[in-house]
Amino acid sequence: MLKAKQAKLILENGTVFTGKSFGSEKSTAGEVVFYTAMTGYPESLTDPSYTGQILVSTYPMIGNYGVPHGHKENGIHKYYESNKLHISGLVISDYSFEFSHWNAEKSLSDWLKEYNVPGIFDIDTRALTKILRDKGSMLGKIEFEGEETDFYDPNKENLVARASCTEREVYGDGEKRVVLIDCGVKNNIIRCLLKRGTTVIRVPWNYDFSNEDYDGVFISNGPGDPAMCEETVQNVKKAIGGEKPVMGICLGNQLLARAAGADTYKLKFGHRSHNQPVILQGTDRCFITSQNHGFAVATETLPNDWEPLFTNANDNTNEGIKHKTKPFFSTQFHPEASSGPTDTEFLFDDFIDSIKKD
């Protein structure tokens, strides 16, 4: 059993939670957000969209199935959503000191220490989540005795520049060539594109891809405020000035909207779960989706040639947009959902099918 050192989670409003360490014993700061998924912590912790955030799990026990092997396929990790942990810290109620799973390679505790990420347990995450739902996502810090640190607001930084790749990379050798704008892409987006017979050209967030030989553009998920990504928006504007298909996911939805001329705004506490219901526009059809975002598109600001594609059934926020005549669309949720429900993966088929080859 781990020898647990005491640690504190301190919120910007002065609230203090005292718990025990099971990760790196390093003080850290960031934006405290909660997520309600019951499974999938290896995927969540490696999701670049969590860059700069202290993640609070509402599920009571974490760590019981350990961490999977770091095997790679097609040049990317098979079981992780990126090549490292992106969270600033992890806060949970109960940590499982023993783990068991056919694919487990190490404990969650060892994994956190490997990437110098603090984790604390024995926290009343129900009480903490109620505070975050009432006050909204808040700045916070995890501190150990004798190691104080200042609060840090990740939303004032261009997190996409931190999460994106730094050079052009190519995966696969399919007939249809897709430029993937990496704003903090999850590996399962690449997997979903590759299994549909594409060549994926992964480029940095600020890369001008207008001279690339491509058949479609894909705008990835990523962390932070879309207003920080003006270079990406300008490049997407060039793409939607043409006719080649464009698809976006999560931050990609917001960036496509901004390129079209719409506005975005920060949500009170965001959507981070496997169970967000969305309604397909013009129908009564509801899909259960996986989500991870803190900003949203202001639907009422969409230009006349654009319209909403999906709407959140809980709070009526925008969950996707589409152009009325051209093959451009995006979703705020994750159709590739790793982890989470895969009900909407057909949207990748829609995107690929819209690509016309001569």
UniProtKB/TrEMBL annotation:
Reactions performed catalytically: hydrogencarbonate + L-glutamine + 2 ATP + H2O = carbamoyl phosphate + L-glutamate + 2 ADP + phosphate + 2 H(+); L-glutamine + H2O = L-glutamate + NH4(+)
Pfam (any one):
CPSase_sm_chain
In terms of superkingdom, the source organism counts as Bacteria
Question: Could you state one GO biological process linked to this protein?
Answer: 'de novo' UMP biosynthetic process
Q: Which Gene3D superfamilies does this UniProt record tie to the protein?
A: 3.40.50.880, Carbamoyl-phosphate synthase small subunit, N-terminal domain
Please name the catalytic residues of this protein. 250, 334, 336
Q: Quick one: where's region CPSase? A: 1-176
* Residues that bind L-glutamine: 49, 222, 224, 251, 254, 292, 294-295
Entry EC no(s): 6.3.5.5
What's in the keyword line of the UniProt record? Amino-acid biosynthesis, Arginine biosynthesis, ATP-binding, Glutamine amidotransferase, Ligase, Nucleotide-binding, Pyrimidine biosynthesis
Instruction: Please provide, alphabetically and separated by semicolons, the GO molecular function terms listed in this UniProt record.
Output: ATP binding; carbamoyl-phosphate synthase (glutamine-hydrolyzing) activity; glutaminase activity
Q: Its annotated pathway?
A: Amino-acid biosynthesis; L-arginine biosynthesis; carbamoyl phosphate from bicarbonate: step 1/1; Pyrimidine metabolism; UMP biosynthesis via de novo pathway; (S)-dihydroorotate from bicarbonate: step 1/3
Would I find Ligase among this entry's keywords?
yes
Any idea where the Carbamoyl-phosphate synthase small subunit N-terminal domain is?
5-143
Going by the record, the broad EC class of this enzyme is ligase
Task: Identify the InterPro entries for this entry.
Answer: Anth_synth/Amidotransfase, CarbamoylP_synth_ssu, CarbamoylP_synth_ssu_N, CarbP_synth_ssu_N_sf, Class_I_gatase-like, CPSase_GATase1, GATASE
Report quaternary structure and partners: Composed of two chains; the small (or glutamine) chain promotes the hydrolysis of glutamine to ammonia, which is used by the large (or ammonia) chain to synthesize carbamoyl phosphate. Tetramer of heterodimers (alpha,beta)4.
Protein family according to the UniProt entry: Belongs to the CarA family.
Please explain the role this protein plays, according to its UniProt record.
Small subunit of the glutamine-dependent carbamoyl phosphate synthetase (CPSase). CPSase catalyzes the formation of carbamoyl phosphate from the ammonia moiety of glutamine, carbonate, and phosphate donated by ATP, constituting the first step of 2 biosynthetic pathways, one leading to arginine and/or urea and the other to pyrimidine nucleotides. The small subunit (glutamine amidotransferase) binds and cleaves glutamine to supply the large subunit with the substrate ammonia.
This chain belongs to which protein, by name?
Carbamoyl phosphate synthase small chain
Q: Which organism is it from?
A: Tangfeifania diversioriginum
Q: Which gene encodes it?
A: carA
